[in-house]
Design brief:
This protein has 229 residues and is mainly alpha-helical. The protein is 52% helix and 0% strand. It contains 5 helices and no strands. It is extended.
Length: 229
Amino acid sequence: MMTDTDSDSSQRGNAVSQAIKYLQLRYQKLLDDVTPYMIGRWISAGLLTLAFLARVFILQGWYIVTYALGIYHLNLFIGFLSPKIDPEIAEYEDDAGGPELPTRANEEFRPFIRRLPEFKFWYAVSKSTLIATICTFFDCFNIPVFWPILVMYFITLFGITMKRQIKHMIKYRYLPFTHGKPKYSGHEDSGKDSRTYQPLHTQPVQNTGGPLVPPPPAASFTVGPVRDA
């Protein structure tokens, strides 16, 4: 009796784990399918953010949630603008063996590698906005605060953070975008031989005043039937 109960519980556990694994695979496939559509992804994230702000404005509440969401988005944006390996601290790290930022114009082209890639940036923005929207359905997150102070503090923090980031860009002379890569345009292969052949130059026959002598005819050979010995 105990064995039957253990087998039933193990089967239910396996079914639940398989269902969770199946949902995870479907979710990962959905993320893989939307990866190439960058513009559409950011339009959806913008609409989701506008819907959240409209809900907060209509309900006149949940300002703490809005402030926390804005601080989190600002942190993500700074990570999106920052290089993967900070040149300011790279010399103090022993394991910083990755690509570095070019500091001279004649150096080899190196693409800008972000600390936070674009897809992860979009995913974090969309996920956090969705969580913040869900929080607006619970009154426990609606803490009464004086919202103009939060707005002024966020604007001040945004200005200080962006000023520091721009100074960092100017100091190490980089832009958070890949640009300046040389483009090579080759001729299309039309299936024809593009090589040019120069005609052979023969030495001209000098005219000495006598009759022109025609060139000797080319030797011709006639192969007859082969006789049996």
